[in-house]
Specification:
This protein has 436 residues and is α/β, with parallel strands linked by helices. The chain has eight helices and 29 strands. It has helices at 8-18, 62-65, 182-190, 229-239, 254-264, 285-289, 334-352, 405-410; strands at 5-6, 25-28, 36-37, 41-42, 52-53, 57-60, 74-82, 99-103, 115-118, 147-150, 160-161, 172-174, 195-199, 203-209, 213-214, 225-226, 243-250, 270-274, 301-307, 309-310, 314-320, 325-330, 362-367, 373-374, 380-388, 393-396, 413-417, 423-424, 429-434. The strands form eight sheets. Strands 1-19-21-22-18-14-17 form a seven-stranded mixed sheet, sandwiched between helices. α1 packs parallel to α7. It is elongated. The two termini are 34 Å apart. Residues 294-299 have low confidence and may be disordered.
Amino acid sequence: MSSTIWSVDEHLDDILAAVKPLEPIELQLLDAQGCLLVEDVVVEVALPPFDNSSMDGYAVRISDVEGASEEFPAVLTVIGDVAAGDGGLADGRSVGPGEAARIMTGAPLPAGAEAVVPVEWTDGGTGGGPAEGMRAHSDAPEGASGEVRIHRPVTPRAHVRAKGSDVQPGDMALRAGAVVGPPQIGLLAAIGRSTVRVRPRPRVVVLSTGSELAQPGEELDGGRIYDSNSFALTAAARDAGAIAYRVPAVADDAETLRTTIEDQLIRADIVVTTGGVSVGAYDVVKEALSSVGDEDEAGGGVDFRKLAMQPGKPQGFGAIGPDHTPLLALPGNPVSSYVSFELFVRPAILKLMGRQDVHRPTVRATLDTDEALASPSGKRQFLRGTYDAEAGTVAPVGGPGSHLIAALAQADALIVLPEDVTSAEPGAEAEVILLR
């Protein structure tokens, strides 16, 4: 372990300098969700690809419905149906003078038609008053023929979505660097793209160490506690956009831990351990990691450090295995491990994904507390808090203890007290890291 005391910023800078974005790959659209585009996507087909109706109604010529009213309706001959997916009227017919075609939403505007009259502005072919809708073609095929009375005129191109009114060939659909979310996937599918080139979501392996750890659902016997860290950190990795694998807790045996980590490297772009990085007789992570992979190769080995922070003083970072897979070794106390994940692992995951901004948003807020908050000199302290955006305040939750996981579950922010602050008074302004 290094005897140097590292600052939070130095440790993070060292991690981000060593972690490189993953190589781009071509993925199916749904597999690319949450990934970063590495190419500009240019539209190749117009959207919509043809003039189509935005309403269920009748495709007509403007001159045929000019001056139409309920008292003096325009009476037109219905020459057929145009449904979504059709190429137009049967036999390539056009809408001629005195004619109309029943048309459904999304169906192509037939030749000769200049606008669409909503069905509610007609009698629906019944010979009665205003219609509320159309009868299904399967129930009343005769609706595609006969006569329809139009009760209102329309303007040219009324209720018609023009070809290319959304995007046209040559338009820029998405630029490199965009994050592929649901709307982007919808656009890519709409313009006919089935795959896209992106930086993939990193694979994160998370494992806890400690013979005292039991799996939730097991019976607890003397001296054992449930493993919460691996669940929390796996969920946090997924929340950051990674594909995360949780490994059941490993006992305090260096050889078992070493073998477990080596077995996991095949599916890891980054490994996160929690526990076993302090100075106790059973803190075996340092012992185990000293011989995982080849330390003699450039970039190999894990450095264990002391950081000027609370919670989270003991930390480890390095590269292991033949591919120099990044490994971050976090403390075992639940709050320490989660705070460490937010400060160091989450930015590393986002860097692997190719993101430019890898940090949580921060704000300045007024401390809403009844008494001053104490902080150790020379250490940057991170306290759990709840942030009120409307009031611009932040209130501490729970005490400073690194085992207080119940308070962590209530928090949505971290209150940052700098190294040179030993007391933060009520009403003082503080930096706040937003966690949600």
